């Protein structure tokens, strides 16, 4: 089967090629070059950032009146370069006062009250949900400890020094 677009799934070059491919998007979405904002003015500098990218995970940051414009610019970018986002894998994280429906390719983007980006829970307004983050980390640590108990990291299994080394390498990493 011959594909006209996309990168080969599983190839070690795919993330690198995708990064080159998507690299134009932040500059396209910016209203002003980031160099024009002094980095010493952290509040203005933070306000000049309207998107975050990590591989194929993209966050658009905007007030409601600008979000529709950013979504349209993002959609136009996909048409020019021949790729497509999945609107059903996108999420709108907006305050309850924002009732506007946002769409991509004519499909309404679903809303959520909290969203996890790269494992960090975010509330509307872009605030980190620290209580949820701590609880998630505690749950992951407990789950890992329970799994380690079954392989011998317990009172009747490995000696204490080895158990401590397992703990520091696996749970604390």
Q: In words, what does this structure look like?
A:
The chain is elongated, with a radius of gyration of 21 Å. The longest helix is centred in the C-terminal third of the chain and has 21 residues, at 130-150. The protein has a three-stranded antiparallel beta sheet with strand order 5-6-7. Strands 1-2 form a two-stranded antiparallel ribbon. A two-stranded antiparallel ribbon has the order 3-4. The protein is built from six helices and seven strands. Helix content is 42%, strand content 12%. The chain has helices spanning 14-22, 24-29, 42-47, 64-81, 130-150, 160-171, and strands at 51-54, 57-60, 103-104, 107-108, 115-117, 120-123, 127-128. By secondary structure, it is of the alpha+beta class.
Structural class, by secondary structure, is alpha+beta
What Rg, in angstroms, do the CA atoms define? 21 Å
What is the residue-mean pLDDT, rounded to a whole number? 84
Major sheet strand order:
5-6-7
Oligomer: single chain
- Work out the number of β strands: 7
Q: Mind summarizing the main beta sheet?
A: 3 strands, antiparallel
Termini separation comes to: 42 Å
* Number of distinct helices: 6
Which helices and strands, and how do they pair?
Blueprint: H1 14-22, H2 24-29, H3 42-47, E1 51-54, E2 57-60, H4 64-81, E3 103-104, E4 107-108, E5 115-117, E6 120-123, E7 127-128, H5 130-150, H6 160-171
Antiparallel strand pairs: 1-2, 3-4, 5-6, 6-7
Helix pairs in contact: 5-6
